[in-house]
Amino acid sequence: MDQIAVHQDSATSTDWPVAIYRTLKSFGVAQVSYVPDAGHSKLIKLSHADAGIKTTVLTTEEEGVAMAAGAWLGGDRAVLLMQSSGVGNCVNMLSLMASCRFPLLTLVTMRGEWAEFNPWQIPMGRATPQAFEIMGTTVLRLENPDDAEEVISAAASLAYDGDQQVAVLISQRMIGRKKWTKETH
Amino acid sequence: MSATGTLDRRAAVKALLADRGDLLVISGLGSSSYDVFDAGEHPGNFYLWGAMGGAAMVGLGLALAQPKRPVLVVTGDGEQLMGIGSLLTVATKQPGNLSIAVLDNGHFGETGMQPSHSGLGAKLEVIASGAGIGNVSDIADMAGIENFRAGLRDLGGGPRLARIRIAAGEVERALPPRDGTYLKNRFRGHLGFKVS
User: Fold this and answer.
1) pLDDT in the model for residue A181
2) 3-state SS assignment for residue B98
């Protein structure tokens, strides 16, 4: 908890997960679901520590898509956190969102692109934008930590006000800057 | 108890939804949606026509958003089997207001009555119990349905899962509205949310 308080007090341009968290709070996000990812670990901690956000760990990513639909039916705004390797799991469930015009905001940390060392991550990483786009999901890119608030805010408006499905792909280069391997437990 | 059920699915769901009060209902695709529709149209019903494997998770998102309303997911064995991991996810949140009724005929009824994993021996109520859902039941008669129904509105008694053994026969289709945006807005309107 102390660590989180420190992060909130000293957000800098490299504290992009804090900027994302604050932006989600400003949009009244009440549910966060996730499949764990090192790149999202700080945001997941912040979310779990916030009594105003119901935070749920999933067994597979498409659960979070269906959960976001249920949340919206009940008046909650939801966000789904995942890694690019989970995007393919969501394809059929995205039909639910398109058919009912449910808002979906998903934040995807990228693997398989910038300086990837694991070849097994590369095919799904490369196909990630297309996997969303074939289902009608709008894809935005977050490449620079300083743009976090602006990009997440634009995506949230498009999703919650525009009734669209929106994925923000967070560059692997950004996660590298955060030295995420040290935060992996 | 034999593996194959004898309950009439329409009668079972009708009994489940009798005197529903403020109950909100999510139905899984296929026959479960037809059964819920046949039991009586209601703006607090959200019928899935796709999203196979997602019914319990739609129910969980709704239950967390509306903790003062009882939420019932009515789905089939095939639908729940496709989203079997969602039972673990539901259990992590322990939503007291969420109940899941699995209409189990041991078959994939919509696609030619191929035997399902349930029909081949899997016990959904045991899997749910192992996942961490404390309140599970295996129902084979109308008295069991009535007992389950009576507990639905206890907001602290969930999450619950009932495996309901229904007969595998074909039933005439009863088709609810298919327009998802209409169903969404109708449901949200029922809860007092304006159409954006």
Assistant:
1) 54
2) strand
